[in-house]
Amino acid sequence: MDEKASASRLPERDRPWVMRTYAGHSSAAATNALFRRNLAKGQTGLSVAFDLPTQTGYDPDHELASGEVGRVGVPVAHLGDMRALFDGIPLAEMNTSMTINAPAMWLLALYGTVGLEQDAELARCAGTTQNDIIKEYLSRGTYIFPPAASLRLTADVVAYTLREMPRWNPVNICSYHLQEAGATPVQEVGFALATAVAVLDAVRDSGQVPAERMGDVVQRISFFVNAGVRFVEEIAKMRAFGVLWDEITRDRYGVTEAKQRRFRYGVQVNSLGLTEAQPENNIQRIVLEMLGVTMSRDARARAVQLPAWNEALGLPRPWDQQWSLRMQQVLAYESDLLEYPDIFAGSHVMTALVDDVVAGARVELDKVLELGGVVAAVETGYLKSALVASLAERRRRMESGADVVVGVNRYVETEPSPLTAAGAEAVEQVDPAVEAAAVDGVRRWRAERDDAAVDAALAQLRADAATTTNLMPATLACVRAGVTTGEWAGALRQVFGEYRAPTGLAGGVGTGGDPGLVAVRERVTATARELGSGRLRLLVGKPGLDGHSNGAEQIAVRARDAGFEVVYQGIRLTAGQIVAAAIQEDVDLVGLSVLSGSHLAAVPAVLDGLRAAGRADLPVVVGGIIPAGDAEALRAAGVARVFTPKDFALTTIIDDLVTVIRETNSLP
């Protein structure tokens, strides 16, 4: 290499980012074993996935937890579970990310208590609680309390960690889920920064942090982003994030130290962009998406976690997670990426792209602030409607072929994949006995504790929640008394109430240019006429705790555009609630969406409920990440159709729904 090229190198190779895999399933003990294996393979941080009951504040024996325990993460119902989760793992030496939001305060209290039991100094403990509740109202759906109360909990955690855990990131603003919900790069940046402003305003206005320490707060705020396959645009997006964050924290919060204003983020690349069809193509997608957050040194991620190639098929096995970890290690240690300064500095193309994103995101941010801030924009439905509309447009481009997805809407001819030849063995299987063990475990835990101490701790929590007192001390007292996750959340539900977020369907836009929709609309009208009803009625239901509602909402929008009257009550419904709505609304078809893997429990519960109500004749269809064997079982149980991610053409799906109604009613 010539002397000029050598001079462009860094004097010392950069340290790699923190490498994580998102892990958690079955039980605390099984997840602990997985953590240990991953750390032995060179993983440098932990990223904990909690199951849906834990994320939504329910114990394993709650009605809504049925079928969900240990499926998409690890169940943590009390201090004993947290002890088992980190048994033998020194928390003072670990960097731990916990994907938890509504009960983030509770899980941090459990984590800190285990750390103290290990004789770890809390001041040395490093890691992150996601703790971004706003995106839960817009995308993932694991919210519990209303927005204002939720922000109060976030501000309390920020103030507590500032005093006791200064190396901890108390909140992780998530644009990741906004992109999955449909956000364009401009919307992703603008909406995420609006959330960050809401958090910082809540901290500042709580009176718990002196004005001169806002810089200390800002430097512990981190972000969690999504990186799609259009990696050049993703690089520009990340650089734009940095420009605007520096500007906001300097001008709005008076942070004068440049180091404190640095944009700090971790990333998981786009797992919902992975395909069930030709899943081997997901490998190159993951690598390209990783480049979008690592190539630009000035906007490089602090931590990276990659999905596995088979996440569109089911729960990845340890070997699949190892493959994703090795991708990071090859890039970091075999390539020369970390040997050079920012390779995009001075690029006219990149500068123009960044300027475009910055300008557009400023407009989006200003619009949200004009509405009164992100809480008002959630409560009015503005943000959700904007995302539903953007996702509908993204779907339209894919269905029309304007956006190519290799193996899905182009180049669909394929050789059989040896990766999936094993069938169900290609993904991790959750033992049905896991839920029973968790239920038994939480009941034994309750039976063996001091009930008087539990009652006193919960009473203090409720009393403090009714004031402006920081809730972390009362929460820590609950941990020590043996309170459970469901009891902690239940006490706060009594004070704060629960919340149902807007669905965003009112603002959903259709597919004006879809020629196939005209024929489907004519079939809908004709079928309604033949049945003697004004309009066909479709109930879209989300049973259980699965909050990923994007697909259900897009089906609802397209069905409405085809002429259906759509009944959609949002997420987290019991089987009984879905059955009652189907009968009360006198629908012609029930469509269930389940993406958490709990379909073999959730769907039969609805079918049994309809039979018990005398409506066994009402057809039911199901959509979700459903393996072929499970799909056969659902059809055998009485489900009329099973749709999976490979069924990407929404208009074709709606046409098939009409066919189901006609078949059920013996129409030709």
UniProtKB/TrEMBL annotation:
GO terms for molecular function: cobalamin binding; metal ion binding; methylmalonyl-CoA mutase activity. The keyword Glycoprotein does not apply. It holds the Pfam family MM_CoA_mutase. Residues 535-664 form the B12-binding domain. Its cofactor is adenosylcob(III)alamin. PROSITE patterns: B12_BINDING. CDD domains: MM_CoA_mut_B12_BD (cd02071). Keywords: Cobalamin, Cobalt, Isomerase, Metal-binding. It comes from the Bacteria. Signal peptide: none annotated. NCBIfam families: acid_CoA_mut_C, acid_CoA_mut_N. Heterodimer of an alpha and a beta chain. Belongs to the methylmalonyl-CoA mutase family. This is Protein meaA. It comes from Micromonospora profundi. The lineage of its organism: Bacteria, Bacillati, Actinomycetota, Actinomycetes, Micromonosporales.
